[in-house]
């Protein structure tokens, strides 16, 4: 396996082959042709464990297939490389980003001519990240003028580098206008799709609602975990088309994503939500229990990282 682990401080360590850095002329750098995943590793009482590794690697393979990226990796090789990179990082609470990148300078956009290989980057994450300690009062959103890409322009189920230019446009203009992040809409229906790097949920009259998987939403793995946990908690849940107006009548709104986990929303434009969000709190606690191995019901979501 030709895998390179890159650490957050910029140092590189090769796992097998001589060190490989991605050249500036790589199709991935020039044209955004690469796919990636973000996976959390948590400290548990029995050692570090990767949360929902199988689902993330399956999505990575699906992203590559949808974009037409050809490579030599199957699930087993990806799993082994990610585990080895995590061990090599010597970190327990961390964020692991495997990606399939073009490693040679090649300016053609015919992906049949481009060779892709795996890189894994490991970043430290504060153990209390799940409490969103930096912003306990919640995040402030705006509705972006930048919609998600049209389904006929981009397969939204692919987590591909190039599509994040759309997220960056929405995020940057939101931050410039004084917000933390933006909600992006489905370009065809004008309904709520997702935030720039997370899925969105709302709670109304005790029912948890989230936009159904239309053509403009990334199938979030945290979204899937939340849907499973609400089932266990006995909280009624429904996946449905969500209109912008539904946000104004919601009692609670929250975002979900691997890196940020569950984040309460305190406002959307000039609409404010109460600080007390009981349904969010209950789901958030259940998520922490599952992710850190305290809730034995979800141990099958954890892949132990072997000792060095
Ligand atoms: N939507 C987008 C556009 C994202 O980048 C992410 C982060 N991967 C998500 C949703 C949430 O997905 P997940 O829960 O799998 O991290």
TrEMBL record:
Its cofactor is pyridoxal 5'-phosphate. One of its GO terms (molecular function) is transaminase activity. Belongs to the class-IV pyridoxal-phosphate-dependent aminotransferase family. GO terms for biological process: amino acid biosynthetic process; carboxylic acid biosynthetic process. It holds the Pfam family Aminotran_4. It comes from the Bacteria. This is Branched chain amino acid aminotransferase apoenzyme. It comes from Actinopolyspora righensis. Gene3D superfamilies: 3.30.470.10, D-amino Acid Aminotransferase, subunit A, domain 2. PROSITE patterns: AA_TRANSFER_CLASS_4. The keyword tRNA-binding does not apply. Keywords: Aminotransferase, Pyridoxal phosphate, Transferase.
């Amino acid at each position: 396996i030709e895998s390179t682990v890159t650490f957050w401080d910029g140092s590189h360590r090769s796992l097998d082959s001589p060190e490989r850095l991605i050249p500036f002329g790589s199709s991935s750098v020039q044209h955004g042709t690469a796919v990636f995943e973000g996976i959390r590793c948590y400290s548990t009482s029995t050692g570090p464990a990767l949360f929902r590794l199988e689902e993330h690697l399956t999505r990575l393979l699906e992203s590559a297939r949808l974009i037409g990226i050809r490579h030599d990796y199957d699930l087993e090789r990806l799993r082994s490389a990610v585990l080895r990179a995590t061990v090599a990082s010597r970190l327990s609470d961390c964020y692991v980003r495997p990606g399939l990148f073009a490693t040679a300078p090649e300016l053609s956009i015919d992906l049949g001519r481009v060779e892709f290989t795996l890189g894994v980057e490991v970043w430290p994450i504060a153990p209390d990240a799940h409490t969103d300690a930096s912003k306990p009062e919640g995040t402030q959103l705006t509705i972006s003028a930048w919609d998600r890409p049209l389904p006929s322009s981009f397969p939204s189920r692919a987590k591909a580098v190039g599509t994040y230019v759309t997220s960056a446009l929405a995020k940057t203009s939101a931050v410039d206008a004084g917000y933390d992040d933006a909600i992006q809409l489905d370009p065809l229906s004008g309904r709520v799709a997702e935030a720039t790097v997370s899925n969105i949920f709302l709670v109304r009259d005790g029912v948890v609602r989230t936009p159904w998987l239309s053509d403009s939403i990334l199938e979030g793995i945290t979204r899937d975990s939340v849907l499973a946990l609400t089932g266990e908690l006995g909280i009624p849940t429904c996946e449905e088309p969500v209109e912008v107006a539904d946000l104004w009548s919601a009692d609670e709104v929250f975002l979900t994503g691997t890196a940020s986990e569950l984040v309460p929303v305190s406002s959307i434009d000039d609409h404010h939500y109460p600080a007390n969000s009981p349904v969010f709190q209950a789901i958030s606690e259940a998520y922490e229990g599952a992710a850190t191995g305290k809730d034995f019901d979800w141990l099958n979501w954890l892949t132990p990282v072997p000792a060095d």
